[in-house]
What we know:
- There is one protein chain.
- The protein is globular.
- The protein has eight helices and seven strands; from the N terminus they run βαβαβαβαβααβααβ.
- Helix 1 packs parallel to helix 2 and helix 4 (103-131) runs parallel beside helix 6 (153-173).
- The protein has helices at 15-26, 39-51, 66-80, 103-131, 143-147, 153-173, 198-203, 213-224, and strands at 6-9, 30-35, 56-60, 85-88, 136-140, 179-185, 235-238.
- The model has no long low-confidence stretch (mean pLDDT 97).
- Strands 3-2-1-4-5-6-7 form a seven-stranded parallel sheet, with helices on both faces.
- It is of the alpha/beta class.
- 47% of the residues lie in helices and 14% in strands.
- Bound molecules: NADPH dihydro-nicotinamide-adenine-dinucleotide phosphate.
- NADPH dihydro-nicotinamide-adenine-dinucleotide phosphate binds at residues 10-11, 13-17, 34-38, 41, 62-64, 89-92, 112, 140, 142, 185, 187-188, 190-193.
Amino acid sequence: MEDKKLALVTGGSRGIGRSVCVELARAGYNIIINYKSNTAAAQETLGLVHEAGGDGESVQFDVADAPAVHDAIDGLLKKYKTIHVLVNNAGIAADTLFAMMPQKDWQSVIQTSLDGFFNVTKPVLTSMLRVKKGCSVVTISSVSGITGNRGQTNYSAAKAGLIGASKALAQEVARLGIRINVVAPGLIETEMIKSAPREIILKLIPMGRVGMPEEVAKVVRFLCSDDASYITGQVISVNGGMV
Length: 243
Ligand code: NDP
């Protein structure tokens, strides 16, 4: 691949992650597109990355599976030496009232977000320590992690945890020039919200519409760029005015 900065986007095959891949490719990055199982969607994203002027590849691994992540990131770092930008975007929801929540739904949501953050960020950060300046991590949380949301105790816990972890890590590496930030979207038009009743969710949003993945991706791109050089440890909401 041509000598450009490299970005790894977890859950880059669809939805917000796909838009982030395209936006970062447009901004001059080569892109590693991680996905869990949807190879066709990941290949489609790779095509869009190429159209946007980037190079890259798609890499399958489950972010919650520590040995699988270890092997995959090890392989990537042997090949590319450094990943300059990491976007921790992979996430799932399994909504139900807490009293009815099966333990597996608690675990899968927490493991994907929080174990995923640990498994991927740790080795990537180690590679960033060699380069330092211009490296950054952006993690996708949610309005649900800030305000809490009925029916989402697992998801709210996971997304709030990502904010805490990112704020702590930002303090650990700020002096090294590595920036760590969080984007907290509201309701964004992806498969994740397909089953949510539209008339109810629209009432929750002051702007009266759901957001588009590109509107999140542009903020991620800004946070990764040198234009955000004095921003670290912050949570930026992209939610149409939800409070
Ligand atoms: P989608 O369901 O559209 O896409 C999820 C993506 O994550 C897919 O690429 C999927 O891969 C990948 N993924 C899921 N689990 C894993 C895993 N264990 N390992 C690796 N990849 C995985 O979701 P969205 O685009 O809507 O959401 C992206 C992020 O934004 C999530 O963290 C979500 O919680 C957050 N968010 C979304 C909001 C929304 O309204 N849509 C609001 C607030 C936050 P594959 O294609 O292989 O299945």
